[in-house]
Amino acid sequence: MRIAKNVLRLEAYVPGEQPKCGNVVKLNTNENPYPPSPKAAKILASFDPDRLRRYPDPNFTELREAIARRNGTTADRVFVGNGSDEILSLAAKAFVENDGSIGSLDPSYSLYKTLAAIRDVPWKASRKCSLFLWTNPNAPTGTFAPVEEIAKFAKRFKGVVIVDEAYADFARDNAMRLATAEENKNLIVMRTFSKSYSLAGLRVGYAVGPKDLINALFKVKDSYNVDAIAQAVALAAYKDQGWMKRNAAKIKKTRTFLTKELEKRGWDVPPSEANFVFAKPPEGGPDAKATFEALKERKIFTRYFAGAKTGDRIRITVGTDEQTRILLEAIDAIHKQA
Ligand SMILES: Cc1ncc(COP(=O)(O)O)c(C=O)c1O
Known about the structure:
This protein is of the alpha/beta class. It folds into two domains: 5-34 and 242-337, Aspartate Aminotransferase, domain 1; 38-240, Aspartate Aminotransferase, domain 2, CATH 3.40.640.10. It has helices at residues 5-9, 38-45, 61-70, 84-94, 111-119, 147-156, 176-180, 211-220, 228-239, 241-264, 288-297, 321-337, and strands at 25-26, 78-81, 102-104, 123-124, 131-135, 160-164, 187-192, 205-208, 276-279, 300-301, 314-317. The chain has a seven-stranded mixed beta sheet, sandwiched between helices. A two-stranded parallel ribbon has the order 1-10. β3 (102-104), α5 and β4 (123-124) form a beta-alpha-beta unit. α3 (61-70) packs parallel to α9 and α4 packs parallel to α5. The longest helix has 24 residues, at 241-264. Pyridoxal-5'-phosphate binds next to α4. Pyridoxal-5'-phosphate (PLP) is lined by residues 30, 83-85, 109, 135, 139, 164, 166, 192, 194, 200, 205.
């Protein structure tokens, strides 16, 4: 047997489609419709290729220090990864024994199940586990859990809790104050540059938490897990908080508009605090899957997750106002035809 049994059995994670053709309305992977900070773009444009002869800083010192400073903590409580997906994978190595398990909300980010299968441990829709991944706001639902609820749970919990805050910049609150508190022994907050900073293609995420847990992530990572260009561009984007916040504010405004317009058309839309909505079409017309497919025919990409808890809805990333107008026009046409 050349391939490990758990890998043979593994159902690989399926990321959202990245269509090759242009001229599409891409609302399927929760990317930001606005460009990254011009300050980050400038660093990228002026990056000296000669710097690539050398390996990057294995400790991403400047970026770590900037993240620590902004959050009123020290750099030894900060880790940086090749996207937050890498941090999740390192956490599965560092915080889960061979007889352990990984738990999360259900539904939640579908990668978690794959992660457990790769690590060859059970995934559970339960808090009785070794590593609990609490996505807040949750995906694909967009719903938000009060931070106090997470704090209460972490206090009682014996394992490690990672609060996956990929969408925190679109939400009313976040758990960073828990991650930086000295008394916290088992909670990590994880963020990404992929959503609010418009840098999904750069692959940078970070984690903040107790020193010993951060140190454990350092022990299991590849030596040079974040490349030199990624470190430099992410740092410039991070320093330009104003740009990120203005874009997040625009997205939140469009989210409110999109929610109201869908509700006017009879859709059920749970209040979202993320950059997407998880919406259920009205009874009697095309169902979620049919709507998803009809939108795709019109080159409007959304996301459909089959399954008992998710199959009656589509997840729609909040785009620009213009993309939202095109989406709503298409929805009207599809549901009128029926
Ligand atoms: C909840 C959640 N966590 C993590 C990620 C991955 O982010 P990154 O691009 O930083 O790997 C995503 C991406 O969609 C996500 O939805």
